[in-house]
Amino acid sequence: DTILVSGSLHVYVSQSSRGELVMGSSLDPYEIHSTRSSLDFVEGLTSHITDMFPFLGNVKVVRQWAGMADLTPDFAPIMGKTEVEGFYIDAGWGTWGFKATPISGKTMAETIARDMAPDMIKSFRLSRFEDYELTGEKGAASVGH
């Protein structure tokens, strides 16, 4: 499926198999745990979408919802072993984890089988926060967070 993204407008749009347009937007500037939407959000999102696609100006909003995404401070996932024996982690993917599931699963299986992280995911280790070695992954997300 195709997803169209504007990193400068912080929005994305795709089309469902039923023909509906599914649109989304960026993060709140502060941490909240509410999944309530608002008229301000819808107006901002639709304004940006019509900047991208003026022909959608008369499209009606049928429904809206909000959700939470698990994001790390550097927008990169946490992958690999932890200090707890036998405990591995693969989290913090935000809005783009579903696209990385095939390689994430394969890489984590290799990590567990060999008890060692492959080079590809070493920069995503949990200890990077303690070591002050953050990974800048803003461009990898489906929305420019």
TrEMBL record:
GO cellular component: cytoplasm
Domain FAD dependent oxidoreductase: 6-110
Keywords of this entry: Oxidoreductase
Domain of life of the native organism: Bacteria
Pfam family for this entry, one: DAO
Organism: Pseudidiomarina aestuarii
Molecular functions (GO terms): oxidoreductase activity
Cited InterPro entries: FAD-dep_OxRdtase, FAD/NAD-bd_sf
Name assigned to this protein: Sarcosine oxidase subunit beta
